[in-house]
Specification:
SulP family inorganic anion transporter; SLC26A/SulP_dom; membrane; four-stranded mixed β-sheet; two-stranded antiparallel ribbon; SLC26A/SulP_fam
């Protein structure tokens, strides 16, 4: 029976964290919409729906959904190819339906197969990306859009080259605001005096100071004043009618276009994978180590994308940046996610003019600290101490996420993890030991429960390394399945090299169906019917010798 959750049980801490996530999400929603070639307001709509609708339906306590940087290239291309944003919205509607269906068929279960070291590598990689991408904004260079996570940027630079561009475009006023914001954020949780105001998030104080400082620069006519293009740029409707024109509804005539369905399927697949990865990451970040039903999450995301498309919003996923900011701000339940969505909605309706005074440098500082907490050196040290089988997939994922994108980085990490697993299984297919006896050396090779063709190379190498005049005992007492390739290998060894080099081979635990020539063992634990059943299933048509 599902335990009923009281959303208002931790309202104080959840409101504070929701406010922080709102401040982080606001420029990201706008930046991603701009990079996607969509109306700016569509990003805000996706953020509102992701916060309120998905936040309510999801079972995740930490995860925050909204427009994702990983979808910008797909959205930009789709809008261009389809020719109109309203037709594109019908593709988002289709994507939502597909995600809803994926939830019902329990496709979310694939998240159980994401290795922990890959997820941690993804988090560390995203943390490094956040730091590298936000440093130019912190110095007043805002050529790249907020929320970009790709190595190659739309402005022609890349993550590294844009850092060097800072030296030609930095603004002293932005640097001052960044340093003040950084001092406030670091001291807010460390200085005893400030701890008295722990219910007020340090991010809010940093934002207020950033606005006030810039207003002072402007009012005094100082050259330190930050220009409008380096501030938050929220759409400001001047009337109800103008507000209504901002809302775009989907053109369902596009459903007759096969290209719309292709875009919808693509968005559904990419958004679902990113969501599952981010949900796994969010569960790892959760201090209480609560687990999210990923099938319910896919349903929530599907409904969220359906609602977003009907209101003129961008497609969405669960987003690591917002989720980690939510966790770091002390969120206790999904109420903080809902609050962030409500604040996004109210900000558009009530105080867009005030929000447009926020310097991007202040918000960049908040995000840089979020990035640092994701990519702490202690995390890298932790996986280094776990050994190469944990460290290599971790570091490969981290580097690939930074150098390419989230999905490619995770795919590389999973491939490396699988290779390591296969390599480990190859070694565990048998045990190889050597005992000293008075009458000579006896070499024991004990086969595992299942010995597949993947183990052929390792067993072949072991048999080839056995010296002349040895006594070898190959045991299969615990073995349920042996691939025909392995049987052939053992037979060839016993009948050729063993005879030529005076190697005495004794087989134990092999069924009659498995028996090799001249063996004196007739075991009784695996039936010939079982062998034929296994051989049939693996399409082995060769007769048993």
């Amino acid at each position: 029976m599902t335990k009923k959750i009281n959303l208002f049980a931790n309202l104080k801490s959840d409101f504070a964290s929701g406010l922080v996530v709102f401040l982080v999400a606001l420029p990201l929603c706008l930046g991603i919409a701009m990079a996607s070639g969509a109306p700016l307001f569509s990003g805000i709509i996706a953020g509102v729906v992701g916060g309120i609708v998905v936040g309510y339906l999801s079972q995740s306590h930490i995860s925050v959904s909204g427009p994702a940087a990983g979808l910008t290239a797909i959205v930009l291309t789709a809008i261009t190819d389809l020719g109109a944003f309203d037709i594109f919205l019908s593709a988002v509607f289709i994507a939502g339906l597909i995600q809803l269906a994926l939830g019902f068929i329990k496709a979310g279960s694939i998240s159980n197969y994401f290795p922990t070291n890959v997820i941690e590598g993804m988090l560390a990689g995203i943390g490094i990306i956040i730091i590298l991408k936000q440093l130019p904004h912190a110095f007043g260079y805002d050529a790249d859009f907020e929320g970009d996570q790709a190595f190659s940027q739309v402005d022609g630079d890349n993550t590294l080259s844009s850092l060097f561009q800072v030296f030609n475009h930095f603004q002293l006023g932005a640097i001052i605001i960044t340093l003040v914001s950084l001092a406030i954020l670091i001291s807010w949780d460390k200085v005893a005096f400030f701890k008295k105001f722990k219910l007020v998030p340090g991010a809010l104080i940093a934002v207020i100071f950033g606005i006030v400082l810039n207003e002072i620069f402007i009012s005094t006519g100082s050259s330190l004043a930050i220009a409008d293009e380096h501030l938050v740029s929220l759409p400001v409707p001047t009337s109800i009618d103008e507000f209504k024109t901002i809302i775009v509804v989907p053109n369902f005539a596009g459903l007759a276009n096969p290209q719309v369905w292709t875009v919808g399927i693509t968005i559904a697949i990419v958004a679902s994978i990113e969501t599952l990865l981010c949900i796994e990451a969010s569960d790892r970040l959760d201090p209480q180590k609560r687990y999210t039903n990923t099938n319910v999450e896919l349903k929530a995301q599907g409904i969220g994308n359906i609602v977003s498309s009907l209101l003129g919003g961008l497609p969405m996923t669960s987003v690591v940046v917002r989720s980690s900011a939510n966790c770091n701000a002390g969120a206790k339940s999904k109420m903080s996610t809902i609050i962030h969505g409500v604040l996004l909605l109210l900000s558009v309706l009530i105080i867009p003019v005030v929000l447009n005074k926020i310097p991007l440098a202040t918000l960049a500082t908040i995000l840089i600290l979020v990035g640092y907490k994701l990519a702490k050196p202690s995390t890298i040290k932790h996986f280094w101490e776990k050994g190469k089988y944990q460290f290599v997939p971790f570091i490969a994922t981290m580097v690939a996420v930074v150098a390419t994108d989230l999905l490619k980085g995770v795919m590389l990490g999973i491939v490396i993890s699988v290779i390591f697993v296969l390599k480990g299984n190859l070694k565990r297919a048998y045990t190889f030991k050597k005992d000293e006896y008075a009458d000579g050396d006896i070499i024991h090779i004990d086969l595992a429960q299942e010995v597949s063709f993947l183990n052929k190379a390792a067993i072949k190498s072991t048999l080839n390394s056995i010296p002349e005049n040895s006594n070898v005992v190959i045991t299969a007492h615990d073995t349920v399945y042996i691939a025909h390739d392995i049987l052939d290998l053992i037979k060839e060894f016993k009948s050729t090299r063993a005879v030529d080099e005076n190697i005495k081979v004794k087989l134990k635990g092999f069924k009659k169906a498995y028996q090799l020539e001249n063996s004196d063992e007739v075991p009784n634990h695996v039936t010939i019917e079982h062998y034929y059943d296994v051989a049939k299933r693996v399409m082995v048509k060769k007769e048993v010798f």
